């Protein structure tokens, strides 16, 4: 199970992108997208200023 992004909350700030150790996050059309590469480490969650990432 990959982490998920709440598109209603995500501002596309990309703070989560740098936090991910496996480069599973990219920004597309102003929203973060998490791929199946995600290893559920949770590192991105605390970096999101709007709590848009759910594990
Ligand atoms: S939970 Fe970990 S591996 Fe998954 S997207 Fe967030 S930082 Fe990357
Ligand atoms: S840190 Fe949060 S608001 Fe910023 S791009 Fe990632 S999910 Fe979206």
3D structure, described in words:
The protein is 9% helix and 22% strand. With 55 residues, the chain is mainly beta. It has a single domain, classed as Alpha-Beta Plaits, CATH 3.30.70.20. A two-stranded antiparallel sheet has the order 1-4. The chain has a two-stranded antiparallel ribbon with strand order 2-3. Strand 2 (25-28) and strand 3 form a beta hairpin. The mean pLDDT is 97. The structure holds iron/sulfur cluster (2 copies). One iron/sulfur cluster is lined by residues 3, 19-20, 22, 24-25, 34, 38-44, 55. One iron/sulfur cluster binds next to helix 1.
Brief synopsis:
With about 55 residues, this protein is mainly beta. Helix content is about 10%, strand content about 20%.
């Amino acid at each position: 199970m990959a982490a998920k992004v709440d598109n209603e909350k995500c501002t596309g700030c990309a703070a989560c992108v740098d936090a991910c150790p496996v480069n599973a996050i990219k920004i597309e059309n102003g929203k973060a997208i998490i791929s199946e590469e995600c290893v559920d480490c949770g590192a991105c969650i605390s970096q999101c200023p709007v709590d848009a990432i759910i594990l």
